[in-house]
Amino acid sequence: MIIAVSGKGGTGKTLVSSLLVKVLSKTNKDILIIDADPDSNIPDTLGINVEKSVGDVRENLKKDINTGNISVGTNKWDILDYNIMTSIVETKEFDLLVMGRPEGSGCYCAVNNMLRKIIENISSNYDVIIIDTEAGLEHLSRRTTQNVDTMLVVSDPSARGILTASRIGKLAEELEINFDNLYLILNRIKEGEEDNITQKAAKTGLDVIGLIHENEIVSEYDFEGKPLIDLPNDSEPVQTIENIVKKLLE
Amino acid sequence: MFEDIPVEVSPMYEGERIRAANMFVELAGPKSIGAELVQVDDSLTEEKFEVIGSELSDMNQGDIIPFGLKIAIKGEKLEQELEGVIERRTHDLCNYVQGFMHLNQRDQIWCRVSTEAKDAGFKLVHLAKAVGTLFKEEFPIIETIAVTILTKKEEVEEFVEGAKSTYSIRDARSRELSDEDVDVFYGCLMCQSFAPSHMCVVTPDRTALCGAINWFDCRASAKMDPDGAIFEIEKGEVIDEEKGEYINVNNMISQKTQGETERVFLHSVFEYPHTSCGCFEAVAFYIPELDGIGIVDRDFNGETPLGIPFSSMAGQCSGGKQVEGFTGLSLEYMRSPKFLQADGAYNRVVWLPQNIKESLKEYIPKDLYDKIPTDADATKVKEIKTYLNDHNHPILERIANQNQTDEEDEEDSVSTTSQEDTTPEYAPVMTSPEISVPASGGVRIVFKNAKIYAEKVIIKKKK
């Protein structure tokens, strides 16, 4: 199962992704999280230190190629494969792969092609893959999320958040990308605003699968930089994601 | 065949990864040492599969162990030259074993055994046996095989050292691999989403111009993904060895570029130079005033002797356009013995950025190194000319010869032109619907419906 979490920047993608990890890691499945948002801080919210991203692996390879540092008899597929493996952070509950910064100058067609194949192969070894996508719509038009079966779009109550959500739905339709599940998660909703926001959300054409209220504990964790994965099990956000996972696994 | 091995052995387990959470032990890898080596050993008398050092049963969950995989082979038709090719299969064959992960090659391998396999009773000696059997099946020229697995630190250390020296001997041999030694070149279309009319030709002497893939990488890719963007080109008949023109390459490029490019010279910037997607690490460009070739790379920010920066030049000759006098290339190609051989190789190079020159110190002929100016010495054509004169660059000889032959030819042609003097109106010596002329200064000159009149036409035999 491949779940992608998308939405406008700052709407709570990372909160949702981290809690999906938290809830799913109790299911005893092999889980891989792909952090595809160069601006994201999912390693922090998972409480993990990342030393190397796929971007670093790519840059290092380019550097070694330019300086002629690679043995003639070895091939770059194997070298990349090995180095990507070293960049994966492995824990008991889940593994994490950080894509890192986008490429610098120069051509990366060949290297990116190899990377795509390698990551596809690595991914095929996991039961569940959670992708924290970059903010916006790029991932759709570049088709990096076309093999995803469940797309969860996160929005806060802002008009812009809702607009991005409805664009994601429309673009997926235009590009004929058929997700098995395409849902909206509403985040940071004020008490009493539920009906109002649900009406607005209905216009996006996306079904709302869960709603998270404005939450003091989350703000406190954010403020203190505490990993969101450690949010209490009985807190509302964790409960909401638990229900979502239940629905998705049905 | 593998009845006595408690896990399955099949190609379907290729690509199997074992998460840290599911592994029993790790062998070699970034936190330990290890290597694999295939060697021909004529003293081999019998098949043998053994483990020297501790077995899995002696290890604890989570251990990280040094690991040597030593494979000795014997066969009437086996030669040392084949060792590398056979060794390359170790990765695939080890991965056939269920519950065993193998990454990379040589002294950079990384293996893991899954907890599941361990619980099923799997041992390292089973791996030795499976790999030995698979090798014999894969390469019938192997008559006898012995696989030894080392797990004792001191022994693995010694083994890795020995293996490293064997690799470097092999590398030296591979570096000598040239276009003449192979029957297959490769075409690469990875960049066709950007440049639909571009195809890269990759040969042992010419790395792809992005620098990312060489002939060995292509061989691996074509095998891994036969329907992918990298494919074989049967080398076939050579038209011009010096320039690097081949019938099959021409046919393939014509087919894959929808006829946009019909001929290509692999080792020249003139006439039909190799086209570029835009990916190249550097551009070689003709400087007409000096009859020489300049090189500029992507990291160079200043102006080139043509008066334009890399970016403008790159724009001119990318997108699959064939522009005489320009060709994109990889830095690795500048280390090739065939580097622009048809044009005079480094004897023809009259300018390049300082950092590139330094990185190529071993590859530029010694007596030439100080004669080629860099951006630190000169960037204007006039200054370059002075530098070349001061340092006695071989291009001077070329220019001198050129002038001489021009004069000689002029004398020969006098008689023919004098006849034409009697006709009041010149007939065009050439007409063409379109002529494009390579030019410097960031422009390309195209004449449409051109009629060329000339007082004198000089036809020279190529030397």
TrEMBL record, chain A:
Q: Name one GO cellular component term.
A: cytosol
Note the superkingdom of the native organism: Archaea
What InterPro entries does its record include? Answer: CobQ/CobB/MinD/ParA_Nub-bd_dom (IPR002586), CooC (IPR014433), P-loop_NTPase (IPR027417), ParA/MinD_ATPase (IPR050625)
- What SUPFAM superfamilies is this protein classified in? P-loop containing nucleoside triphosphate hydrolases
Q: Which organism is it from?
A: Methanobrevibacter filiformis
Name of the protein in its database record: Septum site-determining protein MinD
Question: Residue ranges of the CobQ/CobB/MinD/ParA nucleotide binding domain?
Answer: 2-228
What's an example Gene Ontology biological process for this entry? Answer: negative regulation of cell division
Q: Name one Pfam family in it.
A: CbiA
GO-annotated molecular function: ATP binding; ATP hydrolysis activity
Automatic annotation (TrEMBL), chain B:
Q: What cofactor does this chain's UniProt record say it requires?
A: [Ni-Fe-S] cluster
> From which domain of life does this come?
Archaea
One short Pfam name that applies is ACS_CODH_B_C
**One biological process term in Gene Ontology:** acetyl-CoA metabolic process
Transferase found in the keyword field: yes
Q: Which InterPro entries match?
A: ACS_CODH_B_C, CO_DH/Ac-CoA_synth_bsu, CO_DH/Ac-CoA_synth_bsu_3_sf, CO_DH/Ac-CoA_synth_bsu_arc, Prismane-like_sf
**Under which main EC class is this enzyme filed?**
transferase
Domain (CO dehydrogenase/acetyl-CoA synthase complex beta subunit C-terminal): give its ranges: 167-397
Q: What does the UniProt record say this protein does?
A: Part of a complex that catalyzes the reversible cleavage of acetyl-CoA, allowing autotrophic growth from CO(2). The alpha-epsilon complex generates CO from CO(2), while the beta subunit (this protein) combines the CO with CoA and a methyl group to form acetyl-CoA. The methyl group, which is incorporated into acetyl-CoA, is transferred to the beta subunit by a corrinoid iron-sulfur protein (the gamma-delta complex).
Record-stated family: Belongs to the CdhC family.
Full protein name: Acetyl-CoA decarbonylase/synthase complex subunit beta
The organism named in the record is: Methanobrevibacter filiformis
